[in-house]
Amino acid sequence: MRRAIELAWRGAGWTSPNPLVGCVIVREGRVIGEGWHERYGQAHAERNALADCPLRSGQGASGQPANPDDPAHGCAQGATAYVTLEPCCHTGKQPPCTEALIAAGIARVVVGSRDPNPLVAGKGCEALRAAGIRVDADVLRAACDELNSVFFHFITHKTPYVVAKWAMSADGKIACASGDARWITGPEARVDVHELRHRLAAICVGIGTVLADDPLLTCRRDTPGSQPVRVVLDSRLRIPEDCALVRSCSEGAAPLIVATCAPVADEASPEAAKAKRLASRGVEVFSVAPDAAGRVSVSHLLAMLGSCGIDSLLVEGGAGVLAAFFEAGAVNEAVVYVAPKVIGGAGAPSPVAGKGAPRMADAVALGRATSDVLGDDVKLMFAPAGAARVASQTRIARKAADDWHASAAEGGAPCSPAS
Questions:
Q1: Which end of the chain has a smaller Cβ tally under 10 Å, C or N?
Q2: Known catalytic residue: 46?
């Protein structure tokens, strides 16, 4: 099961909104197949592991198997499958994994996490038992659950898992009073941020950040990665049509959503005409209800993003946007990169704006802290006690990716059956 967990991490940043899943198939104490869910829409971990069995046996995947429903071509008869998440028993973009395990003649399935998806939730294990397969559940469940805090939240709440992030000096400043903010942290911390962007499905900033910095907000890593959706909170639709975000979207570099309270449904309004021009360049313009202050409602925005299948959101600022998410109670965890610098100045901005807590007892409790050292900087991660921390998983996911690329370079990469 520990090996299955290692394999599952290789899918980090690629499977959204599906879960991370790994599978190892063993017979007579020997691993005969391995696989993981590699990409959204492609074969699931169990089918990849089963398809790996004939390759490892030397039989290959060519020829017509005795049972066309058996991805293992008869090579997994009587084996045990270790899988980090309860096998699915419904048809989505892929057929049920339970059917593949049954067709392959698997004798025993060892399950890590239970799937909260109502389409699965215990039904996968029931289907396997009904076919005469022994099922043992909850093996290394805590470690398996850590793989999918995002998926578990999304499947139960239908809204994205939210990570609030900011970088600041040791005295709590995110920029100088002049507005200069490049760079607060060092290169190691900035690399880690890009790993976090790769892990999550979308990045959110406010229009103030766009106007001040003209950011690109793409995921830039040593190895190519999927690009998260960029989301801009822009209540009055002020986004410049020639900014880096719009240009990169029109060039197909990364998707862009602009959430606004402007009257874009009013055909006679200048905002409606601008929204059409943005749409012609590939930008999605969301008309979102305003909150009491006339800003984009965080709760309505999250509901809309969830309906689009966006399972996770990295909120990068600015201070007003972070305040809005904290005030809405929408933050699941926070990550703070602290640089060993003192900026000073009463006019230098702090990370979170808004009205603030009137009393210390009213302050937002972030939860228990963990830390990591990245070069000269310190990474602080906050989440409720016992909760899995997505922000703390960047090293794990990156190591898994490095191991995968090393394995592929040596010709040891299992293939994913065509979907």
A1: C
A2: yes
